[in-house]
Design goal:
The protein is of the alpha+beta class and 675 residues long. Among the domains are: 99 residues; 234 residues, no CATH class. 57% of the residues lie in helices and 14% in strands. It contains 27 helices and 20 strands. The strands form 6 sheets. Strands 1, 2, 3, 4, 8 and 9 form a 6-stranded mixed beta sheet that branches. A 5-stranded mixed beta sheet has the order 12-11-10-17-18, with helices on both faces. Strand 8, helix 4 and strand 9 form a beta-alpha-beta unit. Helix 17 packs parallel to helix 20. The longest helix has 45 residues.
Length: 675
Amino acid sequence: MARELIGLDFGTTNTHLSLTAAGEKNPIGRDIRIFPQNAIQSVLLYTPQESRVIAFGQTAQEEWVTLSRSERRGLKLAVNFKPITGVDPVATKESDLFLNALFRYLRDQNILSSASADNSTQVVIGIPSEAERSYREALSTIFTKMGYPDSPFFYEPWGALFYHYSTKQIDKEHLFRGILVVDFGGGTLDCSYLKDFRVRQVWGSNVLGGQLLDDCLYQLFLKQNPGVEKVFRDEAVERYIRFILFREIKEKYSNRLSQNLTIPFRETIWVGKDNYGNFEIPDYPGFLDRLREYNISEDLATSLTALPRFRETFSDGSLDLLKALRETVLKAFRAQKIPKDAVSLVLLTGGSSRWKFFRDMIGEEFPNTKILSSEDPEATISRGLGSGYSLVLFEKQVKIEIHESMEEITDRLAAVYETILHQSMDRSLQVMDGLLRSHAEPKISHFLERGGTFGDLEKDLNVGLSELGETLALAEKEIHARAVKQIEEATQKEFYRWFDTRENLLSERAAFLLPDPLMMGLIEKRLTDRVFSTLTTVVSVSFGTILTSVLGISGVAGAALSGPAGWLGFFAVGVILTIASFLGFKGKITEGMKKIGYSPWALKLLFPSKKKALDRIFLKQTKELNRRVQKEKLQFVMEKQMLRKQIRSYTERHIDRISFADITSIQETEANHDL
């Protein structure tokens, strides 16, 4: 059976689901729609005493409206239970009933496969950045009992980010430079800073959500219609009007503002055929003033008291809601955890992000930063959760495959690195031989033509050695840089080859999803650029040590010398020893011997061909240098096993650390960021 990944965005106002089927090359979640709109209202109609569900979603709302006052007795229209799930027993029960009813309906309608022992269906759950541990534990328990054990949790902004990336609304440049995701939903305000496709910082508020705006407008209505609250309670319509009708009114007003309409906003409050009064917002500035002087209603305060951050947020009684939202978004920046110029893009998502005042505030704080608003902010998270998790599964399988292939990878890399080293050594020999010959040949020719003492020749050979040393150092640097570049290219090529030979890596495993070519390219780039940057550095440093040794050792000075300057310091002595040996001297050249003069005719007699003489002199030096190179090559062969271990160690270490999908699970993020 093909595996199904369900992306769940369980919201205060609405719940969204998406479905991603295994085997797709472009894993974009598809909306699960059971009502005319994508959203499933987080509403439940049930009997509290029996915990029997009558209806959920839009149907629950519609059923409630049609019921008479007597029929409503013994029933509860449950709303706003999501934010306090895990900390309030009643809300936790209502979340349980709602989610069970929803998933039972999806299975009954054959929209989802039935949960089975082979775990063909997995639910990927999005959670707010400030969600309490008790909230996750409650949802985990609910889904385990439902037949979906080990459901993974991901921060909701991740879902939004992955969706916008997979639909090519965000490019790689922004991903690697830094993105601020702001999710302003019905119950929470969540912020995440992401760089290199990883969560670097998360913060927010599980109190500041769109429900406070609902409450603000509802209180204005009560003020405009004195005495109506008692009527609501007598007729058992208060929860419906407060939490559902005024949520819809809020959304209408928000949409109106986005069209820059300036006439007063008016609504008549109907429940079925019953009229409960009129509501008016005279102007936008007046509405903003109410937000600046917001006092939470007693009923809403009672339901949110269980949240740990509630008392901190409303410590002064009244709250400047606009200021609180701004300060929450800027919290990480003001704490100097993130510089503002590290944000190349601000992504706004969540239903409440549509508000004009919120968008204006973001624009004021990030005036020179690109701002992207979701075209469907309520649904993007669920779409991204399922498809994003498919890449996490891909990541895990790639890691397994690479670990299983490490012997092959190590052998191939070690062989390639050895070839690069040999080529670099040979190049070093050629460069040094050429530079030294060009330096010494005219000086030796002058000595052979004009005659003189070994002391004179030594002084002449030493002239310009400092400049030659700098030239040799530059040559060494160039050879080393070329070797490093070759190492990097060889490493990349090897892992591209590895991916190419496993093109059907996941198609053979129905449990996993194969990313599209764009994402595949990202994975390969991040793999080679990031994981093995340290590996190639380590190997290149080892090469640098060997190359320096080759460049720095002469036949005269021995292994005690290192670097071009050290080699040159004894070069003159080596040349003189070579010439002296041709003259019949053995062993060291004494100071007295350096003072013996040789006439041009004597040298001409000993060296009738100047060219052959020069060739003989330099051949001996070249042979000695070549001997040292071969010795180093032999040493490398002897130490190859150590290099193989080093390659394997660094590769496996970084394979375990990298996230190919660049998606971090809740547990990993908490461990790294002290949430």
